[in-house]
């Protein structure tokens, strides 16, 4: 499973999107509660905070800072690995699998893992 990806801030079309993910009250909230910056370039690892494109309350695409991974059912752990063969059956990943419009789009150029290259 691919758990890391790379944000390339040199792509002109992404500059405004990446900047939008660092503005606003939610960005300030993440900085206050997590004490870590929102990453807008370089390697992204599980639990890092990055800009993503997701539907807002009105269903329109917007940019939000989010933590990379799924929050576990106990609300205390972040999960980021799922087998494609069983993701739709696991409670943590099921809704995102069944309702793909609820999932988010990460602003990235490539995924990678230790033994496997994902593109």
Automatic annotation (TrEMBL):
Residues that span the membrane, as ranges: none
UniProt GO BP: protein-DNA covalent cross-linking repair
UniProt-recorded name of the protein: SOS response-associated peptidase
Pfam family, one: SRAP
Coiled coil location: none
Gene source species: Eubacterium cellulosolvens (strain ATCC 43171 / JCM 9499 / 6) (Cillobacterium cellulosolvens)
Top-rank taxon, per record: Bacteria
Gene Ontology MF terms: single-stranded DNA binding
């Amino acid at each position: 499973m691919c758990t890391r990806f790379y944000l390339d801030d040199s792509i002109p079309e992404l500059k405004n999107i990446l900047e939008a993910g660092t503005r606003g009250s939610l960005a300030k909230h993440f900085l206050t509660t997590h004490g870590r910056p929102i990453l807008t370039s370089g390697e992204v690892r599980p639990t890092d905070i990055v800009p993503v494109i997701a539907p807002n309350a009105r269903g329109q695409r917007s940019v939000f800072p989010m933590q990379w991974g799924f929050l576990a059912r106990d609300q205390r752990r972040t999960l980021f690995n799922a087998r494609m063969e069983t993701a739709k059956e696991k409670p943590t990943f099921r809704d995102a699998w069944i309702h793909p419009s609820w999932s988010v789009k990460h602003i990235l150029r490539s995924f990678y893992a230790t033994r496997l290259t994902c593109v």
